[in-house]
User: Which sequence fits this backbone?
C-alpha cells in the first residue's frame, strides 16, 4: 500500500489540519499576550462567521505570522496540559471545520497521542533538526513535526504520505521556510524510525 485509500485521504487531511490547529492554539495559550502575533485563518474548510472563544482561549484557529520565538517565554511543554483544556481547545477548533465524523475521531486521537508522546517526539525531532531546539522553532513548524513524527513512529501510514501531508500543512500554515525545513527533518526521522528513504 503506497497511499491512503481515497475515501479516507480527504478526511484524514482535514483531521490533520484540525489536530495542527488544536496544538497551535494550545501553544498560543501558553505564551504571554505581548508575544502573540496571529492572524485568523479561514481556509476553505472553515465555515464563515466569527470564531467563538472560550474564557481563557485567545485564538481558536490561527497561524503564526512571525518565525522568531520569544526569547524569554518558551511554550509550556504540550505534555503538561490538563486534559480538560485539551478537550476545550479541540472542541473550539473542531466546531469551525466541516469534516466527517470519522475524521473527528482521528483528529482527537492524533492530538491525544501527540500530547502523550510529546517528550519522545520532541527528542527525535530535535535530534534531526540541526542547530534547532524544538522550543525555539516556529509554533507551526514544531507542531507539524510532532504530528508527522508521531505518525512515522506509531502508525502504518506510508512515510511518503506522512511527509507529503506534513509539507502541505507547513506550506499552508507556516512561513516560506517551513516546507523545506519540515521536509528535511522528517526525511531524516523517517530514515531513522522506518529505515526508509523518502526522496
Assistant:
Amino acid at each position: 500500500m503506497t497511499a491512503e485509500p481515497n475515501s479516507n485521504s480527504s478526511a484524514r487531511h482535514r483531521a490533520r489540519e484540525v489536530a495542527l490547529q488544536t496544538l497551535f492554539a494550545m501553544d498560543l495559550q501558553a505564551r504571554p499576550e505581548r508575544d502573540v502575533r496571529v492572524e485568523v485563518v479561514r481556509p476553505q474548510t472553515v465555515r464563515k462567521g466569527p470564531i467563538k472563544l472560550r474564557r481563557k482561549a485567545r485564538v481558536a484557529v490561527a497561524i503564526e505570522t512571525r518565525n522568531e520565538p520569544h526569547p524569554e517565554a518558551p511554550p509550556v511543554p504540550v505534555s503538561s496540559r490538563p486534559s480538560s483544556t485539551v478537550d476545550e481547545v479541540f472542541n473550539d477548533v473542531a466546531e469551525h471545520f466541516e469534516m466527517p465524523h470519522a475524521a473527528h475521531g482521528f483528529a482527537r486521537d492524533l492530538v491525544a497521542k501527540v500530547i502523550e508522546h510529546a517528550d519522545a517526539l520532541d527528542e527525535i525531532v530535535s535530534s534531526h533538526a540541526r542547530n534547532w531546539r524544538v522550543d525555539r522553532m516556529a509554533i507551526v513548524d514544531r507542531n507539524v513535526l510532532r504530528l508527522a513524527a508521531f505518525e512515522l513512529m506509531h502508525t502504518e501510514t506510508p512515510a511518503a504520505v506522512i511527509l507529503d501531508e506534513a509539507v502541505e500543512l507547513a506550506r499552508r500554515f507556516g512561513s516560506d521556510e517551513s516546507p523545506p525545513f519540515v521536509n528535511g527533518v522528517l526525511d531524516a526521522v523517517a530514515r531513522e524510525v522506518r529505515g526508509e528513504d523518502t526522496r
Notes: The two ends are 17 Å apart (CA to CA). The beta strands are 38-40, 62-64.
